[in-house]
C-alpha cells in the first residue's frame, strides 16, 4: 500500500483528531470511576460494596444492547447528530450518578450510561462515513489510542482528586467533559451524503473482504474476551505472586500493555496494514503466551516481561482488527456496522467478567489469565486455516 493511499485532506485529519480527542475526554468518567465502586457504594447504603461486581458491567451490558440500534439510527438520521446524542447522553447519566442519593438511583444512572452512551461506536460510525480504506483503519487505530490513553490516565486523575472530592461526586464534576466534547463536535460537518453512492453492494462483490463480517464479529468477541478477562483480578494476582507490592507498582503493571499500544500502534499499523490476518494471528499468539506466563511468573522481572508480551499482542490485535473493520466497511453503512461490532465487543467484555469471577472464585486469581490464554491460543490456531476462509468467505 503506497503512502499516497494513506493521505487524507487536512480537513479530514482535523476531523479525525477532533473526534479522537473528544472521545478521550468523554471517556474519563466512564473508564476512571468504575475502579472506585468499592468506595462509592458504601456511601449509598451498600456497606460491603457487594454490588460492585454487578454494577461494574451494567453500563457494558446495556451499551451492548443499545449499540446496534443507535448505529442504524445514525445511518438513517445522520452520524453527527447521533454522535452528539451519545456525548449528551453520557453527560446526563454522569450528572444523575453524581447526585444520586440511593443505590437504586445510582443503578439507574449506570443503566442510562449504557443505553444513552455508545460514544466509541458513534465516533467510529462518523469516521467510517468520512474515510475509507487505509485512512479509515489508521483513524480507527488512533481512536483505540484515545481509549488506551484514557484507561491509563483516568484512574490516576480520579485517585488524585479523591482527596478533595469523593469519587461518587466526581461523576457530576466530570459530566462537564462530555458536555465540552459535544460543544466541540457541534462545529464538525456532517459526513457528505455524496459519498454514500460509493458504498454500493457491487463494490463489495468486486473486491471480496479479507474476512467476512461474521468472522470479524467472532474475532472481535474472542479478542476482547481473551484480553479483558485478565483485568479484574490482576491486582489480586500481583499480590499473590509478589506479596507486599505497593498499589502504585501494581497500577504500573496494569497499565503496561496499554502504554505499549500508545507507543507502538502507528508503527504496527504501517507494518501490518497489508497483512492484517497474519498480524492478528501473531497478536493472539502473543496474548496466549503472555497470559500463560502470568500464571507462572514469580518475580517482578517476569511479570514485567509477560505484561510487555501481552502488550505486544494487544497492540497487534487492536491494530489488525481496525484494518479488518475498515475493509469490511467498504460498501456498507458504517453506523450499523460499527454499532454491531460494538455489541460483540461489549458481549466479549461481559462474558470475560463472568468467566473471571467464576474462575477466580473456584480456582484462584491465576484462573482468569489461564482461561484467557486458552481462548487466545484456540483463536490463533483456527484463524489462519483455509477452513475459516472458505466457510465464512461471505
Automatic annotation (TrEMBL):
Coiled coil: none
Keyword DNA damage: no
Domain of life: Bacteria
Domain Major facilitator superfamily (MFS) profile, residue spans: 15-391
Parts of the chain that traverse the membrane: 16-37, 49-70, 82-100, 106-127, 147-165, 171-189, 216-236, 248-268, 280-298, 304-325, 337-359, 365-384
Membrane topology reported for the UniProt record: Multi-pass membrane protein
Name of a matching Pfam family: MFS_1
UniProt KW keywords: Membrane, Transmembrane, Transmembrane helix
Compartments where located: Cell membrane
Gene3D superfamilies: MFS general substrate transporter like domains
Protein name per Swiss-Prot or TrEMBL: MFS transporter
Amino acid at each position: 500500500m503506497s503512502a499516497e493511499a494513506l493521505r487524507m485532506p487536512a480537513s479530514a485529519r482535523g476531523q479525525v483528531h477532533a473526534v479522537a480527542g473528544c472521545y478521550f475526554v468523554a471517556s474519563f468518567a466512564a473508564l476512571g470511576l468504575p475502579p472506585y465502586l468499592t468506595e462509592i457504594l458504601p456511601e449509598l447504603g451498600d456497606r460491603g460494596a457487594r454490588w460492585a461486581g454487578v454494577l461494574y458491567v451494567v453500563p457494558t451490558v446495556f451499551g451492548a444492547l443499545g449499540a446496534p440500534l443507535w448505529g442504524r439510527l445514525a445511518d438513517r438520521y445522520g452520524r453527527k447528530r447521533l454522535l452528539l446524542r451519545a456525548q449528551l447522553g453520557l453527560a446526563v447519566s454522569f450528572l444523575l450518578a453524581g447526585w444520586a442519593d440511593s443505590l437504586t438511583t445510582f443503578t439507574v444512572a449506570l443503566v442510562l450510561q449504557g443505553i444513552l452512551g455508545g460514544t466509541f461506536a458513534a465516533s467510529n460510525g462518523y469516521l467510517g462515513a468520512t474515510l475509507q480504506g487505509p485512512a479509515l483503519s489508521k483513524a480507527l487505530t488512533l481512536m483505540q489510542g484515545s481509549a488506551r490513553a484514557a484507561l491509563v490516565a483516568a484512574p490516576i486523575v480520579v485517585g488524585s482528586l479523591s482527596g478533595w472530592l469523593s469519587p461518587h461526586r466526581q461523576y457530576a464534576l466530570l459530566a462537564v467533559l462530555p458536555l465540552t466534547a459535544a460543544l466541540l463536535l457541534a462545529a464538525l460537518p456532517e459526513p457528505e451524503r455524496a459519498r454514500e453512492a460509493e458504498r454500493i453492494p457491487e463494490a463489495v462483490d468486486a473486491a471480496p473482504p479479507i474476512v467476512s463480517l461474521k468472522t470479524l464479529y467472532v474475532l472481535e468477541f474472542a479478542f476482547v474476551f481473551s484480553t479483558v478477562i485478565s483485568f479484574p483480578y490482576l491486582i489480586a494476582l500481583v499480590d499473590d505472586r509478589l506479596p507486599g507490592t505497593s498499589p502504585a507498582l501494581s497500577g504500573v503493571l496494569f497499565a503496561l500493555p496499554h502504554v505499549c499500544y500508545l507507543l507502538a500502534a502507528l508503527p504496527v499499523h504501517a507494518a501490518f496494514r497489508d497483512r492484517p490476518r497474519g498480524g492478528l494471528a501473531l497478536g493472539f499468539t502473543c496474548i496466549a503466551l503472555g497470559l500463560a506466563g502470568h500464571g507462572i511468573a514469580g518475580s517482578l522481572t517476569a511479570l514485567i516481561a509477560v505484561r510487555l508480551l501481552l502488550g505486544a499482542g494487544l497492540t497487534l490485535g487492536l491494530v489488525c482488527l481496525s484494518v479488518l473493520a475498515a475493509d469490511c466497511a467498504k460498501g456498507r453503512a458504517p453506523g450499523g456496522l460499527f454499532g454491531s461490532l460494538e455489541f460483540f465487543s461489549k458481549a466479549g467484555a461481559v462474558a470475560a467478567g463472568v468467566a473471571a469471577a467464576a474462575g477466580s472464585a473456584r480456582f484462584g486469581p491465576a484462573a482468569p489469565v489461564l482461561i484467557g490464554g486458552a481462548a487466545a491460543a484456540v483463536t490463533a490456531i483456527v484463524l489462519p486455516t483455509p477452513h475459516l476462509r472458505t466457510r465464512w468467505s461471505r
